[in-house]
Write a structure and sequence with these properties.
Strand content: over 45%
Number of helices: 0
Order of helices and strands: EEEEEEEEEEE
Length: 126
């Protein structure tokens, strides 16, 4: 059984920063890849960032590259998403997820990920 619990979302103003956390239990942190996706109202779930087991490899969506940073602490079973220079287009529910797909480049589609958290809302006002 795998459980993922996100936290750290909230309401911020454009230009502000937030750090999302995701704590995993069960098999979660034996996973080779951890990722973050987001889903805005009326839109499909989209890839945000992913990180390999050893943190050697990371991948980012073009929309967040240079502003967001993904990291993980395997000893704490935690993955983070540091989000800087937020803008209203970043408003969405953010989901933490795990993938047992071992490949490079890292997986970026939802169907390559196996377990999902319940999501945390991020709202950025202009």
């Amino acid at each position: 059984q795998v459980q993922l619990v996100e936290s750290g979302g909230g309401l911020v103003q454009a230009g502000d920063s937030l750090r999302l956390s995701c704590v995993g239990s069960g098999r979660a942190f034996s996973s080779p890849t951890m990722g973050w996706f987001r889903q805005a109202p009326g839109k499909e779930r989209e890839f945000v960032a992913a990180i390999s087991w050893s943190s050697t490899y990371t991948s980012y969506a073009d929309a967040v590259k240079g502003r967001f940073t993904i990291s993980r602490e395997n000893a704490q079973s935690t993955v983070y998403l540091q989000m800087n220079s937020l803008n209203p287009e970043d408003t969405a529910v953010y989901y933490c997820t795990v993938s047992y797909v071992r490949r490079l480049p890292l997986p970026t589609t939802p169907n390559e990920y196996n377990y999902w958290g319940q999501g945390t809302q991020v709202t950025v006002s202009s």
